[in-house]
Amino acid sequence: MNSIYPLATLNEGPQFPLKSVPNLIREAIIGAASKTKAPLPLIFASAMAPVSLLCQGLTDVSPAEGLTFPVSSNFCTVAESGERKSTVDKLFMAPIHEFEREAGIRYGNAIQQYETEREIWEEELKALKSKLNKQVKKNQPTEEIKESIRAHRETIPQEPFRIQLLASDITPAALQYQLYKGGGSIGLHSAEGDIILGGQAIQNLGLLNDLWDGAPFTVSRRCSESFSVHGARLSASLMVQDAPLRKYFKRAQQQARGSGFLARFFFASPDSTIGTRTGSTLEGYQQLLAPYHRRLQQLIEDYAHKTETKALSDRQKLTFTPEAQLRWGDIGDYLEREMAENGRYYSLRDFASKEGNKVARLAALFHYFNGDEGCIAEKTLLDAQKVSEWYLKEALCLFGTQPEQPQYVQDADLLWRWLHERFMDNNGQPITRSWMSPRVPNQLRRPGRLQPALEHLQSNYRVAIAHNGRTMLIAPYDFRW
User: Fold this and answer.
1) Separation between Cα atoms, residue 391 and residue 268, nearest integer Å
2) What span, in angstroms and rounded, lies between the C-alpha atoms of 438 and 373?
3) Which helix or strand (DSSP H or E) is residue 268 part of?
4) Three-state DSSP state, 216
């Protein structure tokens, strides 16, 4: 029987919350999964890489008044050789790679024309200077030729720029210059992430952190052009095998984690699907990917137009509905409590402290890419929170130590699994507290056990509670009363 309500991941839930992903992205993921049979989190991260890359150049998110930051989102997925990382990556990045190829051809033609025009311009300048020199020697009037030289300098050919969206093996200096010259929005991207982990760009963690935060930077040089960049955007997407990642951690984990660099990523280490990739491919899997690719193409065109018209600073600011603003504050309060000494995320405080920011970014990406109108809705925020929470638990497995959970949290896990089955059997309709109490698992019938577990589920947006007179009704959180 198919679930009519997404299985929650309140505590180590077994499933990636695919139902919380917006339809346009989810359908593409289903198509890619049918074709490749790769791990679902790997496919999701691959789908989100171009979404983050393009949306970061077009939008910012403002979850509360006076607070605005980029939507750039970083993903790092650990997957062994043979997990079809490159195959999945190509399915989602095809429009980006095609744009880069065409942009390279246009740039090559433009640079040839520029070099020709520059040579002609320089020869004309030499001729004017030669004429000026002759008139000076002959003590003839020079104002007219001087004015000609001034006017000629105004016509110096402008070097063409190339819009570059992707980089992998790049130095920090080259990255800074490309953000200055090439559009102001780049993705560090590789299906073989050891190229980036072993490269030079990742050595300047301060720069990468500042770019994620949307901070400006200035480059001062003695022998070449100095420049300042405001509003640059950078996201990262890595798929890496376990061995290169461990090698990087051995070399740099203390600095990378201490600086907050790792906490800015959505980390996942999904179970391998090798050995289970049987069954046929959906005949229409390409049709499932087609709307996603069309939306990518539209965003590419929008970004290219903004870059060519130098309107990149005019990003659309995505705001939250009042309900979403309140819910975002609740999420922040919950995370703050769980970072306390006995909290779930005490050993992962660096990640948890960035969680509210990452949830807002993910909600903005879901909203904008899906083509939703108006402000970001509470439901979109909660969907993003469920996905982000799944990633936070992945980070807890990779980087943290899980403290023993309070009894009411363990009870909430047990109660949710029981409730989820009841909601499935009841077609997602509310059930009454009086009907539920004598039927829950035996442990929860002990005095003082059921109510704290139920309140925990309510405070974490898993269930909604309403009253009809003296009758308490319990339903899935997104139930419409």
Assistant:
1) 6
2) 45
3) strand 265-268
4) coil
Q: 245 — phi, psi (to 5°)?
A: -65, -45
Query: What is the spatial distance between Cα 15 and Cα 323, in angstroms, rounded to a whole number?
Result: 28
The CB density around residue 227, as the number of other CB atoms within 10 Å, is 15
Question: For residue range 223-263, what is the model confidence (pLDDT) as tens digits?
Answer: 777 888 888 999 999 999 988 888 888 888 888 888 899 99
Q: 349 with 396: CB under 8 angstroms?
A: no
* Alpha carbons 383 and 20: distance in angstroms, whole number: 5
Query: Could you tell me the CA-to-CA distances from 450 to 70, 402, 441 in Å, in that order?
Result: 42, 24, 10
Q: What are phi and psi of 221, to 5 degrees?
A: -130, 150
pTM: 0.77
CA torsion angle for 381, 382, 383, 385 (degrees, to 10)?
Answer: 90
Find residue 468's DSSP bridge partners. Answer: 471
Nearest to 205 by CA among 254, 141, 276: 254
φ, ψ (nearest 5 deg) of residue 101: -65, -50
- Mention every residue, 6+ apart, whose C-beta is less than 8 A from residue 139: none
Which 3 state secondary structure label does DSSP give 166?
A: strand
CB 53 within 8 A of CB 185: yes
Nearest to 416 by CA among 462, 474, 467, 464: 462
Helix axes 40-55, 349-369, angle to 10 degrees: 70
CA 425 to chain centre: 36
**Residue 464 and residue 475 in contact, taking contact as beta carbons nearer than 8 Å:** yes
Give just the sign of the alpha carbon dihedral 256, 257, 258, 259: positive
Q: Which amino acid is at 108?
A: G
In degrees and rounded to multiples of 5, residue 175 shows phi and psi of -65, -45
Q: Express each pLDDT in 94-124 by its tens digit.
A: 999 999 999 889 989 999 999 999 999 999 9
Helix (H/G/I), strand (E/B), else coil: 62:
strand
Which residues is 60 bridged to in the sheet?
A: 70, 317
Q: Is 153 exposed, middle or buried (0-12, 13-18, 19+ CB in 10 A)?
A: exposed
Query: Can you give the length of the chain in residues?
Result: 481
